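Sample log: Polyhydroxyalkanoate synthesis regulator phasin.
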Amino acid sequence: MKESIRKLGLIGAGLWAMTEEKVNELVKDLVDTGDISKEEGKKAVQDLVEESRKQRVDLEKKISEKIQDATSKADFFTRKDMHELESRLGMLEDEVQKMKNKEKMFFK
């Protein structure tokens, strides 16, 4: 029984990479060899699948945080920056056009 628990612990360590199908196969093998009962197997599958989901969510969250952290430290040109620059450029173009119109009126 201790060996079965140890195996389940080892499974849990790398669980985020496992599919529910693989978990079912591993637990079925433990049930077939008599290491655990069917009820323990069902509970183990539920626990392992839930733990896998939690680890996957946690990993995705950590990756997202690292990406956000890295991009906030980097000097990237964002869409917001682009829109602000376009807006400023539009204002400058308007000013240049106004100056040209005044110049035309002055030199006529």
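Observation: The helical segments are 2-13, 20-32, 38-73, 79-106.
Observation: The chain has a mean pLDDT of 79.
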